[in-house]
Amino acid sequence: RPSPTEPVAATPARSPRRRGRASKPGMATRLLHVLPGFGTGGIQTQLAGIANALGDAFVHAILPIDGDASCLARIAPGVPVEVVSPPPWARAPLRRPLAARALLRACAADLVVTYNWSGVEWCLGNRLLGDAPGLHCEHGFGVEEAGRRLARRNALRRLALAGGIELVVPSRSLERIAREEWGLAPRWIRVVANGV
Prior knowledge:
It contains five helices and seven strands, in the order E-H-E-E-H-E-H-E-H-E-H-E. By secondary structure, it is an alpha/beta fold. The longest helix is centred in the middle third of the chain and has 14 residues, at 116-129.
């Protein structure tokens, strides 16, 4: 397991098309998690708990956007996990979707799981340029959007989450926001309360 301060390079792509790759006997399903950071916090602790419960049936590639991977200490020995990092040029906002595409191809993920606002651009990159199914988890908002969401962010969320991306939220309030402000159809929204 890499140390939290030393991200490893993404592994080479296994095939040009990854849908259904994990259905082959003996191959673990590969998940790419893109989140603001993997320091100790609510989402991070929840992800570590889920990874531990899933055991070695899944390989978890974790991309902490801020570079903090200290929550790796909460993942049990024997759980396949690696930390990946985007290319340096991905810091430019207009290049992030292309960076997402390059990393998605390198990671050969069976499912891309994105979290909160920081993961929306990666969700969009996967939707438009990738070929793995996507799942976006929205747990809440920062101070700048606590009372009212920003119009430009709502527009990007609407674009990123359209077209069959599943959305998981922990409350009915977030479900309502997803329907009314982001224009998502109820069939694409799953409410899973925290602690379940």
